[in-house]
């Protein structure tokens, strides 16, 4: 008989209000949370699934089962188990045998899930234990160096969150097993019941072992996260020290350059003072130079007198006005030429700036 048909038949009998036998044993309703593979191509390959089981037995006369939201694997395994063991023989002797089949499937799922968590944590542990600590490229293990980033800390945080979600589920499975063991002991003590009781105790011991493994995984994840945070903090401190050293070296170079510029400025000040002194002295001698030049030229001539007792006298040359007029004309011509060249340069510079602003070549 298939599991779906038996579940539908027993659920219909219970809902219809059939009168139970006086010696019936209410074994209760169980809600079990367990990991299953979700067959997804991305993300976490496991998801938590919740299945409800309701069982009512009246000894060897009848046994009613309701299974809510079973996974396809659970349903297939239970149908195969029922067809193998013979529904009318073994189940009548031990109405709890389907519980064992269901809980055995949960145990196998926990085995796979913890193996997946262990492999996931092992990669993060290797990154935490064998990556270089500082920023230097010379690692003690150059062939097995890992690049540690803040994403690794996020992965460990997600790993710890998985453990936080899985721990209550595993504890709930253990509570279900203990409850089932108590209910088993209320059944008649045939050999089949005793064998089932031993099997359920074995599953309980295995889940207790998984609980201890999960506790150790949580401790290892906490230590790895602490180590990764220390590595990242140490690297951040090294980066700050390097940045501080670079800034200090830059400030020192700027200070040295500033001192050099100050010395050059002092030297320029000294040269400027010397030039001012020389300019002042040259300015003082300009009138004397002008007078000596005038008297040395032909503009003023020294003529002797006709009578010897009288001294010689200076006489202005008849055409002395010509050099003066020529000098004035040349000065005016020079000023006009300089002003014209300055205006032409300003005009050309303005046209160049206008052409550069508009992108048009005006040359």
Please give a quick description of this structure.
This protein has 363 residues and is mainly alpha-helical. It is built from six helices and five strands.
Please render the helix and strand layout as text.
Blueprint: H1 3-15, E1 25-37, E2 46-57, E3 63-68, H2 72-93, H3 97-130, H4 150-184, H5 191-296, E4 300-303, E5 313-316, H6 321-358
Antiparallel strand pairs: 1-2, 2-3, 4-5
What can you see in these coordinates?
The protein has 363 residues and is mostly helical. 68% of the residues lie in helices and 11% in strands. It is built from 6 helices and 5 strands, in the order αβββααααββα. A 3-stranded antiparallel β-sheet has the order 1-2-3. Strands 4-5 form a two-stranded antiparallel sheet. Strand 2 and strand 3 form a beta hairpin. The longest helix has 106 residues. The N terminus is likely disordered.
């Amino acid at each position: 008989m298939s599991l779906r048909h038996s579940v539908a038949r027993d659920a219909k009998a219970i809902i219809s209000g059939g009168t139970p036998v006086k010696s019936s044993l209410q074994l209760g309703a169980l809600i079990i949370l367990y990991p299953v593979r979700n067959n997804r191509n991305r993300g976490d390959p496991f998801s938590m699934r919740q299945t409800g089981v309701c069982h009512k037995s009246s000894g060897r006369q009848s046994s009613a089962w309701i299974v809510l939201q079973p996974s396809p694997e659970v349903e297939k395994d239970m149908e195969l188990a029922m067809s193998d063991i013979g529904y009318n023989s073994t189940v009548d002797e031990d109405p709890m045998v389907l519980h064992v089949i269901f809980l055995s499937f949960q145990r196998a799922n926990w085995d796979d899930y913890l193996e997946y968590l262990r492999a996931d944590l092992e990669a993060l542990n290797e990154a935490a234990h064998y990556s270089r600590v500082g920023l230097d490229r010379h690692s003690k293990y150059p062939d097995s160096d890992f690049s540690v980033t803040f994403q690794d800390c996020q992965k460990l945080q997600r790993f710890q969150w998985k453990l936080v979600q899985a721990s209550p589920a595993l504890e709930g499975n253990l509570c279900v097993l203990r409850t089932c063991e108590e209910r088993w002991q209320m059944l008649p003590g045939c050999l089949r019941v005793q064998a089932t009781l031993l099997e359920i105790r074995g599953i309980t011991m295995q889940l207790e072992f998984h609980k201890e493994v999960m506790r150790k995984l949580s401790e290892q994840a906490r230590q790895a996260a602490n180590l990764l945070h220390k590595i990242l903090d140490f690297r951040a401190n090294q980066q700050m020290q390097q940045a501080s050293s670079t800034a200090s070296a830059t400030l020192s170079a700027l200070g040295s350059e500033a001192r050099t510029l100050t010395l050059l400025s002092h030297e320029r000040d000294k040269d400027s003072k010397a030039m001012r002194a020389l300019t002042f002295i040259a300015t003082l001698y300009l009138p004397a130079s002008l007078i000596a030049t005038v008297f040395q030229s032909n503009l003023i001539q020294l003529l002797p007198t006709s009578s010897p007792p009288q001294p010689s006298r200076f006489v202005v040359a008849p055409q002395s006005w010509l050099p003066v007029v020529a000098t004035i004309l040349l000065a005016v011509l020079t000023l006009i030429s300089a002003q014209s060249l300055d205006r032409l340069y300003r005009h050309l510079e303005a046209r160049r700036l206008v052409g550069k602003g508009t992108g048009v070549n005006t040359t």
